[in-house]
Specification:
globular, 21% strand, Spore Coat Polysaccharide Biosynthesis Protein SpsA, Chain A, 2-C-methyl-D-erythritol 4-phosphate cytidylyltransferase, 9 strands, IspD/TarI_cytidylyltransf_bact
Length: 230
């Protein structure tokens, strides 16, 4: 059976939440946002182990308030995050001892379903690099330096990337090592893998798989969870 590691970066500050408590620890129906996220991977039989990447001064808090409190025994380690998401993920990758595949998922994206997670695992075995995404709903404009419309891309070719993103471990490790060595930064993992010449297969995600960024997102997330429980 393949070894599959989930890396969950949760070291962001979440300044747009306007809260002293970082967004991954805010309460979502009486449970921290991060706990909802980790729980999906904890309960999925396909996942071998979990690595959570957090701010250095929050490691103890995360261990007590999330990992130990909810008995997430698949969590192998809490790793110190870096100054950027890319560095945080790289730190997580470096702590992997042995894995065939790695899934990377935002700690502040708590509405992932096990079905979506399983589909990503299934597809990565065929395509080596897989991203979850949804078609954009709005027309997108690309502007020039003066704020004028420079281009209107064809909407049916535009997808908004989500997580998880799943990769062969050797592939994604090579992509991050190369990027860090060359000083290349990317807004998500798939960009770094693409730079190796590897095609990334996109599979359909869900508009409910939102990332908690603003207070309104918490309200929407609560409504989604309550509807799922009916």
């Amino acid at each position: 059976m393949e070894s599959i590691t989930a890396i969950i970066p949760a070291a962001g500050q979440g300044k747009r939440m306007k809260s002293k408590l970082n967004k991954q620890y805010l309460s979502l129906l009486d449970k921290p946002v991060l706990a909802h996220t980790v729980e999906v991977f904890q309960n999925c039989d396909l996942i071998t182990e979990i690595i959570v990447v957090v701010k250095e001064d929050e490691i103890d808090y995360c261990r007590r308030k999330v990992i130990e409190k909810y008995n997430y025994n698949k969590v192998k380690a809490l790793i110190r995050g870096g100054q950027s998401r890319q560095k945080s993920v790289h730190n997580g990758l470096q702590s992997v001892d042995n894995a065939d595949y790695v899934l990377i998922h935002d700690g502040a994206r708590p509405l992932l379903t096990e079905d979506m997670l399983c589909r990503a695992v299934d597809q990565v075995k065929d395509y080596k690099a897989v991203g979850v995404a949804v078609p954009v709903k709005d027309t997108i404009k690309r502007i020039d330096n003066d704020g004028y419309v420079a281009e209107t891309p064809v909407r049916d070719k535009l997808w908004a990337i989500q997580t998880p993103q799943a990769f062969e471990y050797s592939l994604v490790s090579e992509a991050y090592n190369k990027a860090m060595k060359e000083g290349i930064s990317g807004t998500d993992t798939s960009i770094l893998v693409e730079r190796l010449g590897q095609k990334v297969k996109l599979i359909r995600g869900s508009y409910e798989n939102l990332k908690i960024t603003t207070p309104e997102d918490l309200i929407n997330a609560e409504a989604i969870i309550k509807r799922r429980q009916q």
